[in-house]
Amino acid sequence: MGEFELIRHYFAAASCARGGEGVALGIGDDCALLELPVGEQLAVSTDTLVEAVHFPASADPCLLGQRALGVSLSDLAAMGATPIGFTLALTLPRAEPAWLEAFARGLDRMAQQCGARLIGGDTTRGPLSLTLSVFGRVPAGQALTRAGARVGDLLCVGGCLGEGAGALELVLGRRQAVAEVAEPLLARYWSPQPQLALGQALLGKATAALDISDGLLADCGHIAAASGVALSVEQARLPISAALLELLGEQGARRCALGGGDDYLLAFTLPPPQLAGLQAAGWPVQVVGRVEAGQGVRLLDEQGRSIAAPAQGYQHFGAAGV
Ligand code: ADP
Ligand code: MG
């Protein structure tokens, strides 16, 4: 199968490539053309996933397609943006119909769920890797950045932490668990649900936000640095699911909640008066700490004393990296 036939068959023919709101021209020309409503800005983000670095070599292609797009769209969620479309640059060792069909199916499923259209890409031969760029729209000047946290704000997260990192233990076969424990965790890993609706609900309310991809403490460090404030995290308030607790015990679960990657939940800072309204409207907003004067991130025990944090989030080129 040639390159053009492959693109046509698996990608241009997918339901998510059919165009829609904001897509004036999709796959097939030299560029796609997007339309933005007046008064909105384009939010753009790119992520690359490399086989054996970001996902296991034997990964189920359907789950991989789903996960790759979910992870990328999470960056739009973090800015409060609404997805318009995405491009897919796919490097493949060989054109294997069963793999491509399943991958496109998983991608299509996540795209339909999130209202993102496939608008273009690139297809090349080489070691398996995926680069997705996502494009969204956000009211001008209102995007949630990392830079607006203010002293006195609450530090909040959008759900139970550490499940992605906990699930990785199962994905890599380092641990086994009964179905009631394994299934919810694996679902969080393979089908991360970008918190797009929550991000949009936080527009005009949260002062800073990001999506947790490298662990709560490491990512909170980005908000602290960009906003010129300190963040304190209260260990006793970390939301941890029963499944994660069952899999790893209290210590292990806490470690994943603080330092594990792959959560793809939002972390954000909120002026205290905003909390009750968001919670009453049913948004999953959990307070885990607050914004203080100073710099960096502190972890506090029940008595409010600073305690040492467990291992940091993953860094490709960090001190312990390559
Ligand atoms: P060009 O040579 O102009 O860069 P290509 O021949 O690479 O274009 O691609 C032809 C069309 O197919 C373009 O519209 C491109 O965006 C799209 N395309 C290529 N690969 C993919 C892919 N993996 N998924 C979706 N669209 C793709
Ligand atoms: Mg061209």
TrEMBL record:
<feature type="binding site">
    <location>
        <position position="122"/>
    </location>
    <ligand>
        <name>Mg(2+) 1</name>
    </ligand>
</feature>
<dbReference type="Pfam" id="PF00586">
    <property type="entry name" value="AIRS"/>
</dbReference>
<dbReference type="InterPro" id="IPR016188">
    <property type="entry name" value="PurM-like_N"/>
</dbReference>
<feature type="binding site">
    <location>
        <position position="314"/>
    </location>
    <ligand>
        <name>substrate</name>
    </ligand>
</feature>
<dbReference type="Pfam" id="PF02769">
    <property type="entry name" value="AIRS_C"/>
</dbReference>
<dbReference type="GO" id="GO:0009030">
    <property type="term" value="F:thiamine-phosphate kinase activity"/>
</dbReference>
<feature type="binding site">
    <location>
        <position position="262"/>
    </location>
    <ligand>
        <name>substrate</name>
    </ligand>
</feature>
<feature type="binding site">
    <location>
        <position position="75"/>
    </location>
    <ligand>
        <name>Mg(2+) 4</name>
    </ligand>
</feature>
<keyword id="KW-0479">Metal-binding</keyword>
<feature type="binding site">
    <location>
        <position position="213"/>
    </location>
    <ligand>
        <name>ATP</name>
    </ligand>
</feature>
<feature type="binding site">
    <location>
        <position position="54"/>
    </location>
    <ligand>
        <name>substrate</name>
    </ligand>
</feature>
<feature type="binding site">
    <location>
        <position position="75"/>
    </location>
    <ligand>
        <name>Mg(2+) 2</name>
    </ligand>
</feature>
<feature type="domain" description="PurM-like C-terminal">
    <location>
        <begin position="151"/>
        <end position="299"/>
    </location>
</feature>
<keyword id="KW-0547">Nucleotide-binding</keyword>
<feature type="binding site">
    <location>
        <position position="146"/>
    </location>
    <ligand>
        <name>ATP</name>
    </ligand>
</feature>
<protein>
    <recommendedName>
        <fullName>Thiamine-monophosphate kinase</fullName>
        <ecNumber>2.7.4.16</ecNumber>
    </recommendedName>
</protein>
<feature type="binding site">
    <location>
        <position position="47"/>
    </location>
    <ligand>
        <name>Mg(2+) 1</name>
    </ligand>
</feature>
<keyword id="KW-0460">Magnesium</keyword>
<keyword id="KW-0784">Thiamine biosynthesis</keyword>
<feature type="binding site">
    <location>
        <position position="46"/>
    </location>
    <ligand>
        <name>Mg(2+) 1</name>
    </ligand>
</feature>
<keyword id="KW-0808">Transferase</keyword>
<feature type="binding site">
    <location>
        <position position="214"/>
    </location>
    <ligand>
        <name>Mg(2+) 5</name>
    </ligand>
</feature>
<feature type="binding site">
    <location>
        <position position="30"/>
    </location>
    <ligand>
        <name>Mg(2+) 4</name>
    </ligand>
</feature>
<feature type="binding site">
    <location>
        <begin position="121"/>
        <end position="122"/>
    </location>
    <ligand>
        <name>ATP</name>
    </ligand>
</feature>
<dbReference type="InterPro" id="IPR036676">
    <property type="entry name" value="PurM-like_C_sf"/>
</dbReference>
<feature type="domain" description="PurM-like N-terminal">
    <location>
        <begin position="28"/>
        <end position="138"/>
    </location>
</feature>
<dbReference type="InterPro" id="IPR010918">
    <property type="entry name" value="PurM-like_C_dom"/>
</dbReference>
<feature type="binding site">
    <location>
        <position position="45"/>
    </location>
    <ligand>
        <name>Mg(2+) 4</name>
    </ligand>
</feature>
<comment type="function">
    <text>Catalyzes the ATP-dependent phosphorylation of thiamine-monophosphate (TMP) to form thiamine-pyrophosphate (TPP), the active form of vitamin B1.</text>
</comment>
<feature type="binding site">
    <location>
        <position position="30"/>
    </location>
    <ligand>
        <name>Mg(2+) 3</name>
    </ligand>
</feature>
<feature type="binding site">
    <location>
        <position position="211"/>
    </location>
    <ligand>
        <name>Mg(2+) 3</name>
    </ligand>
</feature>
<feature type="binding site">
    <location>
        <position position="47"/>
    </location>
    <ligand>
        <name>Mg(2+) 2</name>
    </ligand>
</feature>
<feature type="binding site">
    <location>
        <position position="75"/>
    </location>
    <ligand>
        <name>Mg(2+) 3</name>
    </ligand>
</feature>
<keyword id="KW-0418">Kinase</keyword>
<keyword id="KW-0067">ATP-binding</keyword>
<comment type="similarity">
    <text>Belongs to the thiamine-monophosphate kinase family.</text>
</comment>
<comment type="pathway">
    <text>Cofactor biosynthesis; thiamine diphosphate biosynthesis; thiamine diphosphate from thiamine phosphate: step 1/1.</text>
</comment>
<dbReference type="InterPro" id="IPR006283">
    <property type="entry name" value="ThiL-like"/>
</dbReference>
<dbReference type="InterPro" id="IPR036921">
    <property type="entry name" value="PurM-like_N_sf"/>
</dbReference>
